[in-house]
Design goal:
Elements (H helix, E strand, L loop, with lengths): L10 E5 L4 H12 L3 E6 L2 H13 L4 E5 L5 H15 L4 E4 L14 H26 L5 E6 L13 H22 L3 E8 L5 H12 L4 H12 L9 H11 L11 E4 L7
Parallel strand pairs: 1-2, 1-4, 2-3, 4-5, 5-6, 6-7
């Protein structure tokens, strides 16, 4: 049997979809036929992506959403249900990063990381499972990170803490959704040159390091598989699979898509 993923007639809500990995996920799900609600804090990014996809004949809509606010997260799903009469897929991809050491990270920055990275995913999972119960099916995918698998000496201390929390959250939500035929999984990307990583390179450059050298050294240090840079599409393809019927018996899993950065 060949693998042909068809999400036509399905409704997907993607948080943190305005750029980077979220943009790639939105694009692949739209190409597979889903009606995609592109949600992000920066509405201009959502509108730009939605317009580009709709011009290609796909069906998408832009929505502004602060994922740290449960009511806003739930409101996007409510809008999707009201307009399409269903909710099949929820992707919790929104995230931010800090690079300070464990001892030097300000408490306010830690709290913001928790609100966006961990509570944002929690809000999407809670609202998603509650709304999908009546359909007795659904697929939820969270974005964690290879930094959530093990601590990194170079930084990412509290970023990794939140992403480790997303892995546990994924398992807890999978238990909650199991009786309702709802699959909950996560993907753990490695180093991908998204706008988030550009901000990390800004930090290196501000410290006096050469930007491109820092990028190449990061790849060499963290990624064993010598196939060059990962792309956002590499993550999107795994998410697409997890949203398909081929993944009906996969739940509570966190899948590394990182070139071997975390082999567990």
């Amino acid at each position: 049997m060949s693998m042909n993923i068809d999400l036509s007639k399905q409704t997907a809500v993607i948080y943190g979809a305005g750029r980077g990995i979220g943009e790639a996920i939105a694009t692949e799900l739209a190409k597979a036929g889903a009606t995609v609600y592109i949600a992000d804090l920066i509405i201009e990014n959502c509108e730009d992506l939605s317009n580009r996809l709709n011009e290609q004949g796909f069906n998408t809509k832009a929505c502004k959403c602060d994922v740290s606010n449960f009511e806003e997260v739930d409101a996007v799903m409510a809008q999707a249900e009201a307009e399409t009469e269903r909710l099949d897929i929820v992707i919790n991809n929104a995230g931010i990063v800090t690079l300070d050491s464990f001892l030097d990270t300000p408490i306010a920055d830690i709290e913001k990381l928790i609100k966006v990275n961990l509570m944002g995913a929690n809000n999407g999972c809670q609202a998603g499972v509650k709304r999908m119960q009546k359909y007795n099916h659904g697929k939820i995918v969270n974005t964690s990170s290879f930094a959530g698998r093990h601590a990194l000496a170079e930084g990412f201390a509290h970023y990794g803490m939140t992403k480790a929390g997303v892995i546990y959250l994924t398992q807890a939500a999978a238990y909650a959704g199991a009786d309702y035929n709802i699959n909950v999984n996560a993907v753990c990307p490695g180093i991908i040159r998204t706008p988030m990583w550009e901000s990390i390179l800004d930090n290196y450059e501000n410290s006096g390091a050469d930007r491109e050298t820092s990028w190449k050294e990061s790849l060499k240090h963290f990624i064993p598989l010598a196939r060059g840079d990962q792309k956002p599409e590499d993550i999107a393809y795994t998410v697409l699979f997890l949203c398909s019927e081929y993944a009906n018996h996969i739940t509570g899993q966190s899948i590394n898509v990182d070139g071997g950065a975390a082999m567990n």
